[in-house]
Design a protein that fits this description.
This protein is mainly α. The chain is about 70% helix and about 0% strand.
Length: about 140
């Protein structure tokens, strides 16, 4: 994952870390009414981000969703409600982030098109000037 994208992902996790209910999901040692352990903890997600171990933005999104969905589908209502709330906040934060990236990408595409158009005009004008400067045979 590139540096800018990584920084934004870390920013999103920092916002969620400030929420007191994140403590339910911080480590895999939390008591839940389930026979299986969670796929990973929020602490693990943060550590992977800090070490830049995610190969893509979507891999990070998938891990966060997998964690919250584990608890949403569990038996403990406190964990279910907390996971639903955090997942909604996470999705809201990342949707804003993605739309900002899309806006920036669209602007870059527009700038690229304008530069390409200018380059074509420049080449055309240079070609015309070169023809005019050629001595007549």
């Amino acid at each position: 994952m590139n540096e800018d994208l990584l920084r934004r992902c870390i920013d999103v996790t920092q916002i969620l870390i400030r929420r007191p209910i994140i403590k339910f999901f911080w480590s895999n040692c939390a008591e839940v009414n389930s026979q299986s352990a969670p796929p990973l903890s929020f602490e693990t997600l943060c550590a992977k981000l800090q070490k830049n171990l995610y190969s893509s933005y979507s891999e990070w999104i998938d891990d966060v969703h997998r964690l919250f969905n584990f608890y949403i589908n569990g038996q403990n209502q406190i964990y279910q409600c907390s996971a639903k709330q955090l997942k909604l906040e996470f999705d809201d934060l990342t949707s804003k982030f993605v739309s900002n990236v899309k806006i920036r990408l669209d602007k870059l595409k527009q700038i690229h098109k304008e530069l390409s158009d200018l380059s074509a005009i420049y080449e055309s004008e240079v070609g015309q000037i070169s023809e005019e400067l050629q001595p007549a045979a």
